[in-house]
Amino acid sequence: MNETSTKTAGTPLPEPVLARLVEHHREFVRFVERRIGNRALAEEIVQDAFVRTLDGGDEIRESAVGWFYRVLRNAVIDRQRRQAVADRRLEALAAELATTGQPSEELANVACRCIAELAETLKPDYASALRRVELDGLSVKEYAADAGISASNAGVRIFRAREALRRQVARACGTCAEHGCADCSCQHAGP
């Protein structure tokens, strides 16, 4: 069935076109999953494409299904490009952490007494990574060997753990977290 239709900005897709797209939802998910290898991410990409299609001002000048496959192909390419950039950044950080083995200066200057307590609210892998590297003084390479993971994976885990802890501190301590907790007065500070 060839639904030739146009869509202008702010105009919803015609019901028959929308119904045709919904009818092919499973095929769309399989199409994306074959390209990225992850079912949950494939479903997310298809859902985002549906939302953008409904909200956008794209024009459909051919079969709605064929057009949507092209939308999905572009969405997969965009996702892979963004992921490649993120992976390169994380790898660079992991390599830097693996060679220096030192905590960032920003994290080392944090003096708030509630940090250890807040670290325990993180995912167990993150809390363990921070404890071993920041408190026990292990290098990233030593932590990786101890945890049975690659040095690059360890670097990424520590980076994510630090970011998660930074968010926890900001949530718990508010504005004092922005200034290095020099005169910490948050409820977690203790005596």
Can you give a write-up of this model?
Helices cover 69% and strands 0% of the residues. The protein is mostly helical and 191 residues long. It is elongated and about 65 Å long.
Give the helix/strand layout:
Blueprint: H1 15-23, H2 25-36, H3 39-55, H4 64-100, H5 105-108, H6 115-119, H7 124-135, H8 140-147, H9 151-173, H10 175-178
Structural class: mainly alpha
The low-confidence parts are: 1-9, 107-112
CATH-derived architecture of the largest domain: Orthogonal Bundle
CATH superfamily of the largest domain: Winged helix-like DNA-binding domain superfamily/Winged helix DNA-binding domain
Strand count: 0
Q: Can you summarize this structure?
A:
The protein is mainly α and 191 residues long. The chain has 10 helices and no strands. It has 2 domains: 15-89, Orthogonal Bundle (Rna Polymerase Sigma Factor, Chain: A), CATH 1.10.1740; 101-178, Winged helix-like DNA-binding domain superfamily/Winged helix DNA-binding domain (Arc Repressor Mutant, subunit A).
